Amino acid sequence: RPRVLSGIQPTADSFHVGNYLGALRQWVDLQATHETFYSIVDLHAITVEHEPKLLRQRTRVAAAQLLALGIDPERSTLFVQSQVPAHTQLSWVMECLTGFGEAGRMTQFKDKSGKGGADHTSVGLFTYPILQAADILAYQADAVPVGEDQRQHLELTRNLAQRFNSRFGKTLRVPEPYILKATAKIYDLSEPRAKMSKSSPGGSLDLLADVKASVKKIKSAVTDTEREIRYDEENKPGVSNLLSLLSVFTGTSIPDLEVSYQGKGYGDLKGDLAQVWAEFVTPLQAAVAGYLADPAELDRILSAGAARATAVASKTVADVYQKVGFLTV
Ligand code: ATP
Ligand code: MG
């Protein structure tokens, strides 16, 4: 079976619909056909200022959401990144293969570092795409299911794998991105030209948010001053985003939705989306609460996952360390 690796940061109290459609839905589906490794990437979460207690809580909530969405710990290796030393061990080698300018071209860094000035931007935030490359390469992954925003980091990962292989001999598998076009980029509800993000919660549609609050958010989503319900990303980004979401959750194609909304208003579109959203998250929230009721069991699942992940990833580290000329222990 081909291998899959992907990760998600425990940087918020909930995952949002962009995380779900861009990545997590594929995580669940790929379990049927691939050998799957899924990580809650807490090392990445400390690249920005954080609160320790909150991080611990969010890591468990992340695990509970993944289980509730259908990640099966029997079929998938579900683990917390900081519990598997191979990631940081491999990361150092990858950092030494990365050009300073090459790292500086990562657009996510440019976006995220802008905010507080140079002294509030950690070196970790700068090097995080390299740690991410190590996350993937440690498992010799064939495919990486992610959203469109991660494409550039995947390209860096591929370049580093190829560079390592050409310098030290074939060692690392060069992974392919697995990005589904229709849901690769979900937009912010209040700022429909920006990516929905955990770090800008104002316009994100969150799996664990109070359903009534989410309905309100959907109803106040930014649209445009026309009245026509039509898919046009360029001129009608808000309406197009709502159509994409409704299309996925109802299984109806966008052209069919356009036909069925002829003569109707934005309020109708939003009302229908609010309804399918409520139907989707209500049972999900109950399942998450069930997993969170037994944190010891959650921790046990994660420890078992970490042991399995370590067994695979430490082999890659040993191979890489031998190839670069370190003495073997
Ligand atoms: P943060 O703001 O903390 O970076 P995030 O919302 O970008 O949070 P990540 O944990 O960085 O979430 O990413 C988890 C996965 O979700 C990645 O595969 C990423 O590509 C995907 N993803 C994130 N936002 C979106 C989005 N708006 N549309 C589609 N996929 C997304
Ligand atoms: Mg992100």
From TrEMBL:
GO terms for molecular function: ATP binding; tryptophan-tRNA ligase activity. InterPro entries: aa-tRNA-synth_I_CS, aa-tRNA-synth_Ic, Rossmann-like_a/b/a_fold, Trp-tRNA-ligase, Trp-tRNA-ligase_bac-type, Trp-tRNA_synthetase. It is found in: Cytoplasm. One of its GO terms (cellular component) is cytosol. It catalyses: tRNA(Trp) + L-tryptophan + ATP = L-tryptophyl-tRNA(Trp) + AMP + diphosphate + H(+). Its main location: cytoplasm. PROSITE patterns: AA_TRNA_LIGASE_I. Homodimer. Catalyzes the attachment of tryptophan to tRNA(Trp). It comes from the Bacteria. Belongs to the class-I aminoacyl-tRNA synthetase family. Its EC number is 6.1.1.2. The gene is trpS. This is Tryptophan--tRNA ligase. A motif ('KMSKS' region) lies at residues 195-199. GO terms for biological process: tryptophanyl-tRNA aminoacylation. It is an enzyme of class 6 (ligase). ATP binds at Q9, P10, T11, G18, N19, G147, E148, D149, I186, K195, M196, S197, K198, S199. Keywords: Aminoacyl-tRNA synthetase, ATP-binding, Cytoplasm, Ligase, Nucleotide-binding, Protein biosynthesis. L-tryptophan binds at D135.
